[in-house]
Specification:
Number of strands of chain A: 0
Order of helices and strands of chain A: HHHHHHHHHH
Number of domains of chain B: 2
Order of helices and strands of chain B: HEEEHEEEHHHEHEHEEH
Number of helices of chain A: 10
Distance between the termini of chain A: 23 Å
Low-confidence stretches of chain A: none
Number of helices of chain B: 8
Largest sheet of chain B: 6 strands, mixed
Shape of chain B: globular
CATH topology of chain A: MetI-like fold
CATH architecture of the largest domain in chain B: 3-Layer(aba) Sandwich
Distance between the termini of chain B: 40 Å
Structural class of chain A: mainly alpha
CATH superfamily of the largest domain in chain B: P-loop containing nucleotide triphosphate hydrolases
Largest interface: A-B, 21 and 27 residues
Mean pLDDT of chain B: 91
CATH architecture of chain A: Orthogonal Bundle
Radius of gyration of chain B: 19 Å
Number of strands of chain B: 10
Largest sheet of chain A: none
Low-confidence stretches of chain B: none
Bound molecules: adenosine-5'-diphosphate, magnesium ion
Strand content of chain B: 15-25%
Mean pLDDT of chain A: 90
CATH class of chain A: Mainly Alpha
Oligomer: heterodimer
Helix content of chain B: 25-40%
Strand content of chain A: under 5%
Structural class of chain B: alpha/beta
CATH class of the largest domain in chain B: Alpha Beta
CATH superfamily of chain A: MetI-like
Strand order of the largest sheet of chain B: 6-7-8-3-9-10
CATH topology of the largest domain in chain B: Rossmann fold
């Protein structure tokens, strides 16, 4: 309870100082809009649909790319964990590529796909795929072999073992990898949208960049706030419930 | 148990225990240090419903032989028979209990006991639950069926592992140092429980331990192993009434006898065996 009070108080103070600073006239209102201005923009942009459309465009790219990344990352990770040859080849490649900040895919994607949806998707997939692949493979390989022996003596084999033993045993790792993949995908998508204006859809990143071109600081800050909110919400909705479930079941402490 | 259906009744009925036979079994492993002969032409006969203990210092092939009987591993030469038939792989008739409980942390207690039952044809899900409950009751954990594995004490975990091994109603129970990691008091409880369950459920049990007293307490017969290469060196028949108390004087006499023999075979190597 007391923690809540501190949290609320902190953000109130922050907002009030911001409002006071912007009213003080020390900075040009073009550079420092007040929180009320930002709110006003949000309200108006929500009403005229700009914000909603942009958010939808961005989320569609993100979810689609992320989904594709998972669809390939998990099975490839399972295969990599299973076959030594894949571990020495694909696994190594994944490790290398994963060190590349996913923003770095943007120029390449543009050259390959031009200013298209495919370029956006490609960047998101690259952000997701490799970390999910590595996490899946690590998760499976770190599983205590005793689980497999126990499962075998109870008559489990083949697909049943994969679905009922190997996959659940590596789920905590997998969720960690999915979370990291999500973070990479989200960041790289924003970078891509800021770099590239494409006609097929106007995402949040593009709205942000457009705000800069118009010198509309309230728009810039408002979009930033939305981006933060989406990040937080995704964490709360997509990952936190799983993590809480695992901590309860496995009895593990809090991860990071 | 309350009202039970016919299939459930036959499921819970005692199975006829199985006879196990190992003839001239050898098994070696290639390690970094070279080739290790874990078992050297070992022969064992285990009677139906017998409680047999393997005892010996670590590294003398006890687990290896147990794994061969379980069908998790194959011998290099020799044969292993269950009721006269070759063992070619793991089977529901032979369940294994490991030193580490090997319970699945992503399932709760009930889920763990149900794991093997789900792989057994012929029961619907309600019956499987009844069976699982019966065995949880048998090991004294009927109240913990919804508990997560990490919430249990070491002794409770091994009880769940025992219920899980018993649930598919195997004819043979193979136990590899199941109590080695537990404290003495918890172990004493479990000695009583395992003897009671063995008499109630009529299983053939092979029990591996490096604790001589434990072997004398539980076994009808105790086989003494020695390492390098792994061999069976002596056999002891424990002629004591049951249930046996681990602290009784008669039992101490047997364990002294076994320990003396052990020291003879493994002079300087028997340190890891506790009396
Ligand atoms: N999978 C394995 N790989 C290599 N060596 C093994 C393996 N399993 C057992 N051994 C070796 O075989 C010998 C017997 O092992 P084990 O049967 O586990 O002994 P015990 O259970 O009596 O302690 C040991 O020397 C051990 O190192
Ligand atoms: Mg062993």
């Amino acid at each position: 309870m007391i923690h809540r009070i501190f949290t609320v108080a902190f953000f109130l103070v922050l907002l009030v100082s911001w409002e006071v600073a912007s009213r003080s006239g020390l900075w040009s209102p073009v550079l420092l809009p007040s929180p009320l201005n930002v709110l006003e923009y949000m309200w108006q942009a929500t009403m005229d649909g700009t914000l909603v459309t942009s958010t939808m465009v961005t989320m569609k790219r993100l979810l689609l790319g992320y989904g594709i990344g998972l669809l390939f990352g998990v099975p490839l990770g399972l295969l990599t964990s299973r076959f030594r040859i894949l571990q020495d080849t694909l696994g190594l490649l994944a490790l290398g590529i994963q060190t590349l900040p996913s923003v770095c895919w943007v120029p390449l994607a543009l050259l390959w796909f031009g200013q298209t949806e495919a370029a956006m998707l490609f960047v998101v997939v690259m952000g997701t795929l490799w970390s999910v692949l590595i996490a899946t493979s690590d998760g499976v390989r770190s599983m205590p072999p005793i689980y497999l022996r126990a499962a075998r003596t109870m008559g489990s084999k083949g697909l049943h073992t994969w679905v009922n033993v190997i996959l659940p045993a590596s789920l905590p790792y997998l969720i960690g990898g999915m979370k990291q993949g999500w973070a990479f995908a989200w960041r790289s998508l924003m970078a891509a949208e800021i770099f590239v204006t494409i006609l097929s859809g106007f995402g949040l990143g593009q709205l942000l960049q457009y705000g800069r071109e118009l010198l509309a600081m309230d728009q810039v800050v408002a979009v930033m706030v939305i981006i933060v909110a989406i990040g937080l919400l995704a964490d709360r909705i997509l990952f936190s419930p799983w993590e809480r479930f695992f901590h309860k079941r496995w009895g593990t402490g809090s991860t990071n | 148990m309350k009202k039970v259906t016919v299939s459930l009744q036959s499921e819970l009925a005692n199975t006829s225990p199985e006879r196990i036979e190992a003839n001239n079994v050898s098994k070696s492993f290639t390690t970094d240090r070279g080739k290790v002969l874990a078992l050297d032409r070992v022969s064992v006969k285990v009677g139906e419903g017998e409680f047999l203990c393997f005892v010996g210092p670590s590294g003398c092939g006890k687990s290896t032989l147990l794994n061969l009987i379980a069908g998790i591993d194959q011998p290099d030469s020799g044969q292993i028979l269950a009721n006269g038939e070759n063992i070619t792989g793991p089977g529901r008739d032979r369940m294994v209990m490991f030193q580490e409980h090997a319970l699945f942390p992503w399932l709760d207690v009930m889920g763990n006991v149900l794991f093997g039952l789900r792989l057994k044809p012929g029961l619907n899900s309600k019956e499987r639950r009844e069976v699982a409950k019966y065995y949880l009751h048998l090991v004294g954990l009927e109240k913990s069926e919804r508990a997560n594995i990490h919430e249990l004490s070491g002794g409770m975990k091994q009880r769940v592992a025992l219920a899980r091994a018993l649930a598919p109603n195997p004819r043979v129970l193979l136990m590899d140092e199941p109590f080695a990691a537990l404290d003495a008091l918890t172990r004493e409880h479990l000695y009583g429980d395992i003897q009671r369950i063995w008499e109630a459920r009529r299983k053939t049990i092979i029990f591996v331990t490096h604790n001589v007293r434990e072997a004398a307490c539980l076994g009808d017969r105790v086989l003494l192993f020695s390492p390098n290469p792994g061999r069976i060196r002596a056999e002891f028949r424990i002629e004591l009434p049951r249930p046996r108390d681990i602290n009784s004087v008669e039992l101490a006499r047997y364990s002294t006898e076994i320990t003396t023999a052990l020291k003879g075979f493994t002079s300087g190597q028997g340190k890891e065996v506790s009396e």
